[in-house]
Amino acid sequence: MTSDLLAPLDLAFWNMESDRYPMHLGALGVFAAHSPTAGAHAADLLAARAAAVPGLRMRIRDMWQPLAFGGAAREADPGFDPLNHVRLHAPAADFHAVAGRLMERPLERGRPPWEAHVVPGEDGVSFAVLFKFHHALADGLRALKLAAGVLDPVDLPERPPRPVEPPRGLLPDVRRLPGLLPGLVRDAVRDTVRDTLSDVGRALDIGTSLARSTLGMRPTSALTSAPSGTRRTAGVVLDIDDVHRVRKSVGGTVNDVLIAVVAGALRRWLDERGDGSAGVAPRALIPVSRRRPRTAQPQGNRLSGYLIPLPVGEADPLRRLDTVRTAMVRNKDAGSERGAGAVALLADHVPALGHRLGGPLVGQAARLWFDILVTSVPLPGVGLRLGGHELTAVYPLAPLPPGQALAVAISTYRGHVHYGLVADGRAVPDLERFAHAVSAEVETLLAVCGD
What is d(CA 371, CA 282) in angstroms, rounded to the nearest whole number? Predict the structure, then answer.
């Protein structure tokens, strides 16, 4: 049986998981139903199609061989049964209430670490599917590809064919190799030394930037949480045209506006619940994918990130947006390879056994690195369907790091922005209040922009 060793960052995600802090990401999709039995039909389709998606058959197995001692690998599960992964639930009126309870439960580690939960709506005109993928199995782009494998086929533009052979002149003539060999060896040694020095420099830059990131920062206890193992989820839908109106009025990018909305919503939420927002500037980790969708790359996570202070204490919404825009420009200019947000890249330099032994400690250290996760999940521009039923909304759900109370994930789909909110259920019993604050912040930005 062939296997594929987990990349270092995947291995880190696999080992930092605990019962109260599962490391799966999710997506709650809401579909229009043509009949009351649409949900049951969707569950049957998901189970039937899952067997034909190779990535969904992959389990993760611990490795103890000398060359991979303490590591883990993906391999096909010989006993794979899609019925162990697709579950049909009783009808519900509140999809997010069900999703919160389901997000609490870690995935079973002895079989492929993913699940699809189908929840019919009590109204009979909708149903929801909650996909859960372990972060060691897939990052956002990979999870999207796996989920697409069980949805209805869509017509996508064809990619240009890749060249079968490299252009002539790029490879040395084998007859000249004896004369070229000393130079090739010298170049290889030089490149190795250069790469090693570059890695050391990168680690020093990341460490220095991380230390600096704590200066002048004032987090809030509302974003920290003792482990309860409980989860709540909520969702917010915005019109993308409203976001574009703000962006065109004040400049920057759509992502700048969406992050600034989080800062403003946090301010409202903290003030309304009596915690106070004066001087608060929590550090937000903004993950950055290093994966290129149109190139052949390994299955594992390829992530870095930006770390920015959220100007929660700033009363002026336009100044909040300008502060976010300035911080994002500064991070982009520096690049995602260095800086306080690039700590994930250091996983490549930790041996497998180190990840296994230190995983729980690394998970607990997340709260020292950042205070809240704000991530964007790409979605295709085409309409998606399951059994002919249209996907009307999709809420990405991020894993909640140990010691943290709230995580925010954002996706744009068919003219709307969807915020998926995940919180510790005991620490944030008023998650709906934060969801309302997100909508209110957009209205405030539109008002001050004169729209």
Answer: 6
DSSP string computed for 12-76: HHHHS--SSS--EEEEEEEEE-SSTTHHHHHHHHHHHHHTT-GGGGEEEEE--SGGGTT-EEEEE
Domain ranges of the chain: 3-148, 192-376+402-448
Entry pTM: 0.83
* Matching fold, domains 3-148 and 192-376+402-448: yes
Could you report the per-residue pLDDT of 147-167, keeping only the tens digit for each?
A: 989 999 875 555 555 555 544
pLDDT of residue 260: 97
CATH topology of domain 192-376+402-448: Chloramphenicol Acetyltransferase (3.30.559)
Q: In degrees to the nearest 10, what's the CA dihedral of 447, 256, 369, 212?
A: -100
Q: Which range among 21-25, 181-185, 302-306, 352-356 shows the weakest confidence by mean pLDDT?
A: 352-356
| Structural tokens at position 202 | 């990168």
Classify domain 3-148 by CATH architecture.
2-Layer Sandwich (3.30)
